[in-house]
Amino acid sequence: MRPDTSHWRDHDSYDYFDALPIEGLAWECLRRHKPYQRHYGALLATSAQKAPMTPEAQQKWGLRFPGQA
């Protein structure tokens, strides 16, 4: 789950950021967030990764908009 940070100083490793849509940038930030990594790790440990996240978890991690579109 943890991203490969071995080349974090290499500018070429981040070229793809320039082409990311806003959702992609949000995902890149979320997946590096330690509390989210722990939550996801717990899902993997319980084999719950195949089940959808609860609405509360979706709201907590910003995976859904808070209101109607």
Written description of the protein model:
The protein has helices spanning 22-31, 34-45, 55-60. The radius of gyration is 14 Å and the shape is flat. The model has no long low-confidence stretch (mean pLDDT 81). It is an all-alpha fold and 69 residues long.
Rounded to the nearest angstrom, the distance between the terminal CA atoms is 31 Å
Derived structural class: mainly alpha
**What is the general shape?**
flat
Order of helices and strands: HHH
Note poorly predicted spans: none
Tell me, rounded to a whole number, the average pLDDT: 81
Q: What is the helix content? A: 40-55%
Q: Count of helices?
A: 3
Report the major sheet: none
Percentage of β-strand residues: under 5%
As a whole number of angstroms, the C-alpha radius of gyration is 14 Å
Q: Could you give the count of β-strands?
A: 0
Could you write a compact summary of the structure shown?
This protein has 69 residues and is mainly α.
